[in-house]
Design a protein that fits this description.
This protein is α+β, with helices and mostly antiparallel strands. The protein has 6 domains: about 50 residues, Orthogonal Bundle (Helix Hairpins); about 230 residues, D-amino Acid Aminotransferase, Chain A, domain 1, CATH 3.30.470.30; about 90 residues, Beta Barrel (OB fold (Dihydrolipoamide Acetyltransferase, E2P)), CATH 2.40.50; about 60 residues, Orthogonal Bundle (DNA polymerase, domain 1), CATH 1.10.150.20; about 70 residues, 5' to 3' exonuclease, C-terminal subdomain (DNA polymerase, domain 1, Orthogonal Bundle); about 70 residues, BRCT domain (Rossmann fold), CATH 3.40.50.10190. It contains 25 helices and 26 strands. The strands form 8 sheets. Strands 2-13-10-3-9 form a 5-stranded mixed β-sheet, with helices on both faces. The protein has a 5-stranded antiparallel β-sheet with strand order 16-15-14-18-19. A 4-stranded antiparallel β-sheet has the order 5-4-7-8. Helix 13 runs antiparallel to helix 17. The structure holds 2-(butylsulfanyl)adenosine.
């Protein structure tokens, strides 16, 4: 990007950022999220760093925040109210530790840490003289804040008088917060009264304190958590050598202190705390956006001091943003195993939820049209946990005019066959198909699908590609005709691996019927439908001879699905493929209908770790056949966690939530 382009881009970014600020602060628009705001601000900052000339003297972004409101009396803080430096990964956390160690030099003592929650609310400082609350103030710009004494007095968590023995003087720092539940109630009431909703608990809490009517503050049911002592008279200083001592003193003086905090011997214990909080954060009654980590020893804190606005001895670990902005560089098309063309967006790589995202499926043309997405657009992408990334919004205002609309190609990118446009039955959406039965892209995908549906672990996509290239397979059935000799003759296939591959294929010659049905890759037949079909018909022979009406009879199977299944079995190409499979000895195992028992009715199981005898699939089948359910994540609704060897985080989650944990033996007793 040259300077001119950078300047234009910066202008657009500034306009969008100001608009977000306006919507967020003035209009309390709940659709504005911090992640997007931060992402755009980061882009602007990095452009300004690259081209210093484009910086503005009176940057609207560095204005607003933090200036005390004129309507409040101003308060000069005796001790400056600092901010925290953020770290976004364990790597950055370790860098922080290394910087500290380097500063402390070769005689650095062993560092101990204190980890606590970072609350998402409004920072408040409270002065007590002779045990009485004399002043409450906001942070303001760190030096001068607003006097909000009357308002903090009506927050019931904040003590008006301290129990004896109390220090002659103490200044307590903490966060005024609103619980998620209170926000919900408040927003319901706002809506009823035709008033705007609050975007989040932080906004609602800050709004309730930074206004002049303390009756209104009271009605907002705010809470308070104390996290620091800014000033303490000498009479009590002997008691506080560490930050953790300060927390203990705060607690004994009647301040609410979070129960989620921990003295940590080293960074690995800090990480454990961070992971623990990550697991319960969503369910926590208050908003937390991270963990605050301090060097526990106060004398060391003094030695480390402050740089800029933030102390060196503290860091805020922020959980990764689930939304970010980036630009669409290109849109390409992938051919799926059913022949459907799927547009794929390619991005400037960006970090979301802890991993770098450079592409995301756009699903279909409808999605592109709904978003009005064009190549060159700035978009908001979202990725929650392990979920695949998706484009959720186009920031239309950031367009330069050079964006290009995307058009589906007229011919298949893999085989150049003319693309067909098909409407779904209800006529609500269109899909584009490559109808060439021998399309190489389609074919390789259906082999991959077949192999992974049957859990033939040894045969991955790379091997399949190799086998196809060598002309050893043309479809999934050919896999069952392979011999060791076929493979060991190939370069880089040792005898051992050839043997493993052949064995692993042979082992899967008799897959359970639902698996087999899924492996065929019939459009609309996923795991659930495959199981429903197997349950209903019992054997593959009955299933393949069934008419469309027979499929229609099955609960959960709609017209589009039954149409697709009958079409699959009627197709000559598919018939040939099935005959080939059978002639090579593949035979699905009939489904035993056992769901007559409701022994485990309404029981929700979650599985973790490796069980001694049952495979995960077998355990699942058992649960379902006895009327139970299997869920992938532990929640308070989970009835049992069925745990094997090397369980993952589900185990600790279950412990925390008090979910009953059972092993295979217990489970087999339950299921008997
Ligand atoms: S320590 C050194 N501890 O985070 C100044 N701050 O990003 C920080 N915050 O203004 C004080 N929870 O409003 C500290 N447990 C905690 C906190 C916390 C939330 C807020 C506080 C501060 C901001 C800095």
């Amino acid at each position: 990007m040259n300077k001119d382009e950078a300047k234009k881009r910066a202008e657009k970014l500034r306009a969008e950022i100001s608009d977000l600020r306006f919507r967020y602060h003035v209009k309390n628009d709940p659709s504005v999220t911090d992640d997007i705001y931060d992402s755009l601000t980061r882009e602007l900052r990095s452009l300004e760093a690259k081209f210093p000339d484009i910086r503005l003297k009176d940057d609207p972004l560095s204005r607003v925040a933090g200036k005390p409101l004129p309507k409040f009396e101003k308060v000069s803080h005796k001790e400056r109210m600092l901010s925290l430096n953020d770290v976004f990964s364990y790597e950055e956390l370790e860098d922080w530790q290394n910087r500290i160690l380097k500063l402390l030099g070769s005689k650095a003592p062993k560092l101990g840490y204190f980890a606590e929650l970072k609350f998402d609310g409004l920072a408040i400082t409270l002065r007590y003289e002779n045990g009485k609350l004399v002043q409450g103030a906001t942070r303001g710009d760190g030096f001068v804040g607003e006097n909000v004494t009357e308002n903090v007095k009506v927050i019931s968590d904040i003590p008006l008088a301290l129990p004896k023995p109390y220090p002659a003087e103490i200044e307590v720092r903490g966060e005024v917060v609103m619980s998620k539940k209170t926000l919900e109630e408040l927003n319901a009431a706002q809506e009823k009264a035709g008033l705007p909703r609050f975007a989040n608990t932080r906004n609602a809490a800050a709004g309730a304190v930074r206004q002049l009517d303390s009756a209104l503050t009271k009605s907002r049911k705010l809470n308070f958590f104390a996290y620091d002592i800014a000033e303490l008279s000498p009479d009590f200083r002997v008691r506080t050598k560490k930050h953790s001592d300060e927390h203990r003193l705060l607690f004994s003086l009647g301040f609410p202190v979070s129960e989620h905090e921990k003295i940590c011997e080293d960074i690995s214990e800090v990480k454990k705390f961070i992971e623990g909080v990550r697991a319960i954060r969503e369910k926590f009654p208050f908003g937390t956006d991270g963990v605050v980590i301090s060097v526990d020893d106060l004398a060391l804190q003094d030695r480390l001091g402050v740089v800029g606005k933030a102390p060196r001895y503290m860091a805020a670990f922020k959980y990764p943003a689930e939304k970010a902005t980036t630009r669409v560089i290109d849109i390409t098309v992938q051919v799926g195993r059913t022949g459907v063309l799927t547009p794929l967006a390619h991005f400037e790589p960006t970090l979301v939820a802890g991993s770098t995202v450079s592409k995301a499926t756009l699903h279909n043309m409808d999605q592109i049209e709904r978003l009005d997405l064009r190549i060159g657009d700035t978009v908001v992408i979202q990725k929650a946990g392990d979920v695949i990334p998706e484009v959720v919004e186009v920031l239309v205002k950031l367009r330069s005019g050079k964006e290009k609309k995307f058009k589906m190609p007229a011919t298949c990118p893999a085989c150049s066959t003319k693309i067909e446009k098909r409407e779904n039955l209800a006529g609500e959406s269109v899909a584009y198909y490559c109808v060439n039965k021998h399309c190489p892209a389609k074919n390789i995908r259906s082999i991959n699908h077949f192999v992974s549906a049957l859990d033939i672990y040894e045969v991955g996509p790379k091997i399949i590609e190799r086998l196809k290239d060598e002309g050893l397979i043309t479809d999934a059935a050919d896999l069952f005709a392979l011999t060791e000799a076929d493979l060991s003759g190939l370069e880089r296939f040792g005898e051992k691996s050839a043997k493993n591959i052949i064995e692993s294929i042979r082992e899967k010659k008799n897959p359970p019927l639902p698996r087999f049905m899924m492996a065929l890759g019939i459009i609309h037949v996923g795991e659930e439908t495959a199981r429903d079909l197997a349950k209903h018909f019992g054997t593959f022979e009955k299933l393949r001879k069934a008419k469309k009406e027979n499929f229609d009879e099955i609960e959960n199977i709609g017209p589009a699905v039954s149409e697709s299944i009958s079409a699959y079995f009627a197709d000559a190409h598919n018939k040939k493929f099935l005959e080939k499979l059978f002639s090579l000895g593949v035979k699905p195992v009939s489904y035993k209908l056992q769901a007559t028992s409701y022994k485990l009715k309404d029981k929700i199981f979650v599985l973790t770790g490796t069980l001694p005898t049952l495979s995960r699939e077998e355990a699942k089948e058992k649960i379902i056949s006895l009327g139970g359910k299997v869920s992938s994540a532990v929640s308070k609704n989970t009835s049992y966690l069925l745990a094997g060897a090397d369980p993952g985080s589900k185990f600790t989650n279950a412990q925390k939530l008090g979910v009953k944990i059972i092993d295979e033996k217990d489970f087999l007793k339950l299921a008997k």
